[in-house]
């Protein structure tokens, strides 16, 4: 069972499609700022993995999660967080 489908009632679409729709019409400075925050979090996470010598394990886990629902759900959660951050700053 998929947690998010295009037919979902909330904002009529998936978290991903909602993010891209809002990102196109929102203040671009806010969108860029929020994306920079996500990339900074990613950079910190990658640095921590490298320092712990876990980057190979991370790559193997990522490859095994490609088809897993958990990865899709986590990705959707990030899109939802981004939409919330962008919308609240554009009001």
Give a quick precis of the structure.
The protein is mainly alpha-helical and 91 residues long.
Helix content: over 70%
CATH C-level: Mainly Alpha
Please tell me the overall pLDDT.
Answer: 84
Topology, number of strands: 0
Summarize the helix and strand pattern as letters.
HHHH
SS content category: mainly alpha
The name of the CATH superfamily reads HP0242-like domain
Q: Count the helices. How many?
A: 4
C-alpha end-to-end distance = 35 Å
Low-confidence parts lasting 5 or more residues at pLDDT below 50?
none
Describe the global form. flat
CATH topology (fold) name: HP0242-like fold
Number of domains: 1
Rg from alpha-carbon coordinates: 15 Å
CATH architecture: Orthogonal Bundle
Topology overview:
Layout: H1 15-25, H2 28-51, H3 55-65, H4 69-90
Helix pairs in contact: 1-4, 2-4
Write a structural description:
The protein is mostly helical and 91 residues long. It has one domain (15-90): Orthogonal Bundle (HP0242-like fold), CATH 1.10.3350. It has four helices and no strands. The chain has helices spanning 15-25, 28-51, 55-65, 69-90. It is flat and about 45 Å long. It starts with 14 loop residues before the first helix and ends with a helix. The mean pLDDT is 84.
Annotation keywords:
91 residues; mainly alpha; HP0242-like fold; 4 helices; flat
